[in-house]
Design a protein that fits this description.
Rossmann fold; 11 helices; two-stranded antiparallel ribbon; alpha/beta; globular
């Protein structure tokens, strides 16, 4: 498992700038939900695990929380340290999600944004149980493309053609562009809702609260390309398929954009429960 862990977090090496600049934030309604319904407050101690460049971390810090940012990728972590250093309640930590090094029963809430699918489920669950205070909760969240949107469907076709490592977008079904039989095979075992794989097995007694929030946004060509190039599976400039990927995405942008702006239909899905 160690080799798998290393290869997964290294996929984002050299993509920190793109990730921080072009990845969407989480909607205000989601943050309000965490505060009003889940109980996050200025007194909360949060471990944001797989924190990346600190997109969600910043939004939690702005609520007054003390946030331990757990990020093993050095370029992503350094970017967060540079941009979040002005928050006195920000703490940057280096280790893996399954071995955080945090003290027993020291954390009120654990957040995982766009990263749960990279973790060893059982080891991470055990680590959450160790570091959470009694009654503490885990919050899993993804920003996902709306699957039946024409832009999303064509984008996924391009990714399948140009990105050998593409297996579908994180947090979604990843079946756009497939035939009906292939779609059924590609879907998670639990077809009753769009849930991350093994979510039911992760939370205590399979109980969790799932919420959805609209997170659509407009962007220009640079932001559209940058967001796509920030993905773990996207080619880098040194890769042979980079030019074809960028040219195909540019064509997609011009087909659907209006006045130099493209609407990206996005949904934020969160899953909250005890472990």
């Amino acid at each position: 498992m160690e080799n798998q862990e290393i290869s997964s977090f290294e996929k984002f090496t050299d993509k920190a700038e793109l990730y921080a600049k072009y990845r969407p934030h989480y909607p205000d309604e989601f943050i309000e939900y965490l505060c009003d319904d889940i109980g996050i407050s200025p007194y909360s101690i949060v471990a944001d695990i797989g924190s990346g460049t600190g997109i969600l971390s910043r939004q939690l810090l702005e609520q007054g929380c003390k946030v331990y940012c757990i990020e093993p990728n050095s370029s992503m972590r350094r970017h967060a340290e540079h941009t979040l250093s002005g928050f006195s309640n920000f703490v940057s930590v280096n280790p893996m999600a399954e071995h955080t090094g945090l003290s027993d029963e020291s954390i009120d809430f654990i957040t995982v944004a766009q990263a749960f699918h990279w973790f060893d489920l059982q080891k991470f669950r055990q680590e959450c149980q160790r570091i959470l205070k009694p009654g503490g909760k885990v919050i899993l969240v993804w920003n996902s493309k709306v699957e039946d949107d024409p832009v999303t469907m064509e984008r996924e076709r391009i990714c399948r053609e140009c990105c050998p490592d593409f297996k579908g977008s994180a947090g979604g079904q990843g079946t756009a562009g497939l035939g009906n039989a292939e779609r059924m095979k590609a879907r998670p075992i639990d077809r009753s809702a769009e849930r991350p794989d093994n979510c039911t097995a992760f939370f205590r007694d399979g109980i969790f609260e799932m919420k959805e929030f609209v997170n659509d946004f407009y962007g220009d060509l640079d932001s559209f390309l940058g967001g796509n190039l920030s993905s773990s599976y996207a080619p880098k400039k040194s890769d042979g398929n980079y030019t074809a990927f960028v040219e195909s995405l540019t064509g997609l942008f011009h087909r659907y954009s209006k006045d130099g702006q493209l609407l990206t239909r996005n949904v934020t899905r969160s899953y909250v429960g005890e472990v």
